[in-house]
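User: Batch of two.

Assistant: Item 1 of 2:
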Amino acid sequence: MRISCFNSRPQFKTSPRQNPHWYGNPKESSPFINSSAATNMDKSQQYDGNNMALFEEEMDTSPMVSSLLSTLANYSNLPTGSKEHEEAENNEEGSRPSKKPLGTLMGVYLPCIQNIFGVILFLRMTWMVGIGGVFGSFIIVFMCCSTTMLTAISMSAIATNGVVPAGGSYYMISRSLGPEFGGAVGICFYLGTTFAGAMYILGCIEILLIYIVPQAAIFKIEGLEGPEAEAALLNNMRVYGTIVLSFMALVVFVGVKYVNKLALVFLACVILSILSVYAGVIKTAIDPPVFPVCLLGNRTLLSKGYDVCAKVIEIDNETVTTKLWRSFCDSEYLNATCDEYFNNNNVTEIQGIPGVTSGILAENLFGNYLEKGMILEKRGLASDVDPDSPTTNSNRYVLADITSFFTLLVGIYFPSVTGIMAGSNRSGDLRDAQKSIPIGTIAAISTTSTVYMSCVVLFGACIEGVVLRDKFGEGVSGNLVIGTLAWPSPWVIVFGSFFSTCGAGLQSLTGAPRLLQAISRDGIIPFLRIFGHGKANGEPTWALLLTASICEIGIIIASLDAVAPILSMFFLMCYMFVNLACALQTLLRTPNWRPRFKFYHWALSFLGMSLCLSLMFMCSWYYAIVAMGIATCIYKYIEFYRAEKEWGDGIRGISLSAARFALMRLEEGPPHTKNWRPQILVLVSMDAEQNIEQPRLLSLTNQLKAGKGLTIVGTCVQGTFLDNYTDAHKSLRKLMETEKVKGFTQVVISSNLRDGTSHLIQVGGLGGLKHNTVMVSWPRNWKQPECHQEFRNFIEVVRETTIASIALLVPKNISSYPSNGERFTEGHIDVWWVVHDGGMLMLLPFLLRQHKVWRKCKMRIFTVAQMDDNSIQMKKDLLTFLYHLRIDAVVEVVEMHDGDISAYTYEKTLIMEQRSQILKQMHLTKNEMEREELLHDEVSVSVHVFTDLRVEKNELQWEYRNQMMFLFVLFSQIQSITDSSRGRMHTAMRLNEVITKKSKEAKLVLLNMPGPPKNRVGEENYMEFLEVLTEGLNRVLLVRGGGREVITIYS
């Protein structure tokens, strides 16, 4: 037997090759194996030689471990398009040796250092220390550096949780928080990088026009004072900024590789400038530099307003007035009339840099915040000033150019700690990104934080307070304040900061378009797709054009102090979501969350997120709101267009956890009446081609739900699961998308429709989130013999919902119901409230009128009064009840008097009984029971009704039946019509007459649906009752409550 089985293996293997459809259709592209690369014969030989014949059928979808390991080991973490870009460059320039991967130092540490150190350190750090004091400035630096350190810890955890392709922070956030958050934060990060470019360009122009070549100003500042001088400076910034921006954009467009090659030069300028500052601090302890500052009383004088720091000087034993005298007096003579403050106070000269050992630190320890236009005054120096006299000649002093406060300093300073993403943005070029990113980024932040904190203390210990508060060096001959401290020359700082800001601006204009290109190519924001295109080698031309345009907005603002808080908002938002992503992944404990970096904790991530949010509102609450508004709009835009991206993000994990928690809570008990809403199971049927037969059921569901609550669209298909499930499911999803119904689909395949429908009603939903209402269409052709099983199934649905305490909605003439695109400009929704059903009849019209289709319709409520009822009091009570329910409706009480059964009613009842008996008779004939016994026990039909039934029988059977019926017809007619049937038919007829009279023109009639018969003898009678009840009405919605209150008058 073993030999026989072994020898039969080749015959088993040949059968798939003989039948090409044995496996089904293989996938076009496998993530591991190119199935088209080898023929079936090659594969069979491969399996034979490797003992893999047992798994041959799975090889198209499940690769062998050997090929899988080879594929994963050689995985390339370059983004889509990078390889094509490299191939294009190789084709242009010939074959070149492959680029050597970068390590931690060159790939992460130094790029982060270059991006973190920037224009704020050189142009605003000393001013911040002077305004906020050493203590306040240290707090600002510590907060900002702590925020970036905590963010770096979270980023390290995310970056080491698997391979991070090039794309950096955007990739990490989008893959951790999903396309909606990813797109919103990606755009914010892009805008922050773009405005950072504008800030660097403005810093570059400020250094150029104020400290290097002031005479190059197009709008001359000399001779202008106050607002005019400020406006001229801003106009110069705008003109030169636009020129520099255009030049930088052209450089990036023409040769981005030269920008990367110059990066080390710009980095060297930054490091050299910082080293010169530390060298200058050391020198102040030995030989402080001479930078005199002239004070009048305790007020700082403009250096251009005097030649000698004195009122008068002695020349050849003659007292001569100075330029300073002529600035405050009306003539150069000693008897001239001078400014009162000038007369009452002496002129003194102090050293602007007294040195680190001078003890000036104590004076600079606390802040000195100024209003715009206030004069810079030295603390601790006496001044004789009349508080009642106005300040004159204020243009001779150094004035505060803006109103300063603590939160303003936070917003201006924070951009100096951004740039921590530089390493992660280069993840595609790193030798080992999972090792280099955490080490390099944290080391860079530690280094820069140490430099910043030490600079705060050293600036306060070396430089005079009035010089620190002098933003543009107007009191020290127009020198850059930090340059006065540098050694060997202030020009080291001036030129070093100039070139470093130029380099940073170029880096921003290089990085921002690529970030926008990555977002565009992800396809999550449709209107940005055009920016994913570029030159043949992949350069983002259109993205560069948009980046330059947005950057020009920052140039037009022209103020470095105004632009800095803007980019602070966007960077803070980006960092906040990095921390949020790490915290969520940690708390959700997703199986894929296995970062190599172990020194993280969800509490640290939440602390970092809280700091980011706090700093956003501390910097500028209105900028924070605008930034959040932009992010929210992008989020909702992506959500509206439903970006079909499945990235295994944390938001999906939150949704699953929240859903599980909510379902567990729902299990605790039924919802309160105030929380009740229809959770609808819509039962639809399909034809032989798997098309929905009643699509308007979903339209009505959408109008009733308005997208709220649970909707399950279910169908039962007769047949086998393999042949029918997929097509049925696709048909349901397609129809739901067409009708814009938000919900779930449920397909049950069964050997018969009755059991399948019962299973749908029983098992639909999950836990506490189950349907409480079933909607099923009225069986249209139930009177035809071939459709008798359809109405029996319908009645069983009514019985099952009654037993399960589930509400039932039965729309009649469903094809005449309006679609979602139609509008009723007028009309009524009539409610016929015959019996109390828990308030369903009151609630449904209210829900329908929330939809635009039914919004213009008015609601009318009719109730039926018997002979012994007080109709006037009933109307008053009903109006009061509706008032408490907060429902607007017209109320009418209809009086129905007991009367004799009309001839028409009797005839209708008779016909109904005859149809019932003939259907029973035909059913028993199919079961081959004896014909004579059947006619004796069940006959109650007339000849003309019987002949209407189209059942294919031979002529002999028809003749025999008719003869027997004539014998018994007179006796059976009277005996079969019971008192109960006559009463039901009479009620149905009388109600129909009243309803037709009152609601013939109504757009929709809602009516209580009576319960089915307890036994199955009178099922045909029940259907006839409902037919008579709704006869002559266009749209009827039969409503049967679920046995509980669904509406309440209480709040």
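Item 2 of 2:
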Amino acid sequence: MADPRRDPGSGAPETCGLEQILEALKLLLSPGGSGSSSLQIPKRDVLLATLKSNLSALEDKFLKEPHWKKLKLLREDVASEAGWPQSSADVTWSFTAQALLLLLCLKETMLRLAAGFNPRKADPRTPEAAPALSPDTLSISQQKTVQSVLQFVVTLGVCPYLMPGVGVPLRCRTEFGAVVQDVVCLDAAPDATRRLYASCRVLLNVAQHAALGSLIFCRHFGDIAAGLCQLGFCPTKRKPLNSEEEVITEEERAVSRKALRDVLDQVYQPLAVRELLFLQGGPPQSSTDMKTPVRCRAPAWLRRLCGQLLSERLMRPSGVQAVVRGILEGAGAGAAGGSDAEATAADWKKCDLIAKILASCPQQSLSPEDYYRDICPQILDLFHFQDKLTARQFQRVATTTFITMSRERPELAAKYLLRPVLAPLCRCLSTAEIPESDVVPGTILVTEEELSRCVEDIFKVYVVGNEPVAVLVDSLIPVLGVFFSLYCFTKQSVSHLRSLCQETLLWILGKLERKKAITSLKGFAGLDKSVPTLHSLCQFRAATQGGIVITIKEAICDEDEALYQKVSSEQCQVEHLGDLLSLCQESGLAGDFFIFCLKELTHVAAESEAELKTQPFSSNSLLELERHQTLLVEGQEQKLLVLQLVAVLCERMSEQIFTNIAQVVEFVVATLQRACASVAHRTESAVESQTLSMSMGLVAVMLGGAVQLKSSDFAVLKQLLPLLEKVSLAYPDPVIQELAADLRITISTHGAFSTEAVSVAAQSALSKKDPEGKIEEPQQNSRERYTGVSHGHLSQQQSLEKPNQTGLESSAPLGPQEGSEPSTTTSQTARSITTEQLQEVLLSAYDPQIPTRAAALRTLSRWIEQREARALEVQEKLLKIFLENLEHEDTFVYLSAIQGVALLTDVYPEKILLGLLAQYDGSKDKHTPETRMKVGEVLMRIVRALGDMVSKYREPLIHTFLRGARDPDSAHRASSLSNLGELCQRLDFLLGSVVHEVTACLIAVAKTDHEVQVRRAAIHVIVLLLRGLSQKATEVLRDVLKDLYHLLKHVVRLEPDDVAKLHAQLALEELDEIMRNFLFPPQKLEKKIVVLP
């Protein structure tokens, strides 16, 4: 479309300087005269007058200035070769034409200057000197002038002639654009289409120079592309009758189409994508605001054209990256990860949009398979960017696209996406065939980079994407064995792949169906040989860059060494499997696999018994004998593996392994089956008997009320009835026989009837403290069950029981009518202490032996905490004992006494607190300083225990502590201030009436007290006060906050003690945080909805 460059030496006029051309361009852009500043003249007339004035001034320069002769000749030469009209009755086009001619002159001059430039060779004596600039280089100010001219050319020569819906209308851009739209006269010659063609042609011609092209396409590519689309692809209304009526020829339309495709190929591809998307537009818009102009929707032909061009951009090399960058950068993410890149990466809507675009096969593609073959490698490349912000965007897009393609076309996604991702792991499967050329010890099958990229890509697709699409899950199952082996290897040393492998295994095991998950776990443990694992010739090895490679291992000639490595490898895998399952307990997978192992253990016992009864193998064929021996060895290996697996699971799993009653029942079923098998084979042992007792005790615990059983739960429990019947009839232990029969009756009656043996078994399973209590309570339950006690009386007894008492101690089995209410309760007297016990402990509180006395005090404290009625009846005597033991010099004794007094005061605060305050406030003559300090510790614990209830005793507490701050004893002053801080921390707004007294006391002590410990305590009170009030400090301490701030600054500047300074600095930090949150509250994304009456 553009004219080819002229040869600078082919008889052209003498070259003029760049400065002269740029001066002419500035003259065209100079503002209007004095008349243009009048507010009475419309902007339209001002613009027309300015354009005419500048054109006249330029022509005067050419006529009157001799040194402009060279530029005049160059302009005339360029104008003579131009094939487009340069004059018109429309001033705007005359102005545009002159600007275009000057731009062509600028381009010609720059080409000639560059052609005649011969740079000198670099001086070796000054290699650091900068090379000489080319004479066609534009300065920054010159570039600004050219950019201004280009803006005028595009605004006056391109945008006014675009059809509605093609590009952005001038009226929607700026106020100046609306004025230009009114100024342009479309009726004057030349025709609008001819003007548009000339402007686009000249701009593309000027853009052939690299420096000028960057200035044009950087800001005006969208408008030029819109003009070329209109010129080359806009359908004509009718066929012209003759060539004179034809505004633009078919050849010119073809040139425009070619120019559009050429310029699309040359520019930065994300820019092309973004501008094409903008040209294509969106759905029709509607606006309720009459002042806001509504942009017309793009014509159908333009939408189809932009879609076709976008598809072509996508199908090019690196087209996926260009589309992603074009959309994300156009959304405000910046080029290659700007300041908004993180926000854009978090926008799932944009990622879903791009994924749908990439997953949809365009019409230009021959078939979906061809499209996927070309696009999928580019999608996988999006996972591997190094820049963090760009990587976050592209990885999220790649993950979403991966999942979308897998959902819409699973076969093609498996072939072109999943297969390349999983290829490094599939290469070393036990079912894969390794080429003979690679079967050399030390040969690297999978490099460090390949394996790391494979694991990371799997993590991004499966764990980050978190979409259990069927094709994704099914594709990963065959390589899970190798993946688990890799996980085991990473556990042996430090590796960045360990967490990725662990998270991926946990994800896939959680998403798989339970049967498939159990099968996979069997393969991990080596119990299922059909599950593909790591090839026997392959091994993992640490790489030089900190990663892992897969190599061909060397053959081991020593059979003992090979056996040792095999056994140790299996042992490590089992232990790592136990670690992995310990993280799957909440989902119930660990419990199901544990039950499977117990069932396998039962089969092992049965097979062992069967092997003992089988006849010796006799065969004349050595091959058959060897095969038989191999099968026997493999069978023994399986049995040892099962035993080892059960041992590891028992060691690794916690008591929370079973998550529902069905799993517990399956566990008990496996145990009962093993017991029945041992009885049948007469191989029972003490260990099996204990295991059986434990499992049956577990059932008794459930039936005893520890779990609220429903009708559906009893339906599950009925699976135990046949096995319990077998145990009750055949097991040699009479206790287990009786318990099995009783459990069978209780399950059959849905808990309506329960014997004493069931309750005893339940308490044994829970390991209660004394067997007498265990037996006595069920006996009482049995008596109450047959006396027909009313349910109302039983519920009253239930409410009096201690909160830490278990349901098995307080309730009988559940009845069928009342599935959630216990039918009986335990008598309170069975748990209460006797008078003899109380008297014995009271006497022990005066025992000269320190351990005995301390233990007695601890026992009394525990009874008070448990609200034992007999102990609380003698609360005065208990208070006297505790206070007397405060005088004891041993730490264990007086700390136990302090705890007892605090607990007793928590029960009777009104009776005891005032007495303690009087004792704390007394003089040295009545109590020793040590005793007063111990009472202060008691008061601090009481304040903490009372919590919000401390407000009731605010007055006596504050007065006592303020008086204590003036005590002659420095230790007592520090203790009083410490207690004052604990109290103020909990008073909140109730501190308001005494805040001035507290503040005055703290300021006086912090500034005047001679003891360092007391000054530290005073500053620490301020820290606790600010920390406790937090954001309420600005309201509670409103009147004294300034005084406290001055005090803290005084301490920081003048206090000699470092610890006091540290406390003051902490208080200032608390105050700074409070004031920052007060002045600059955090922004909350919430909407307040008010319902009007």
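The two ends are 70 Å apart (CA to CA).
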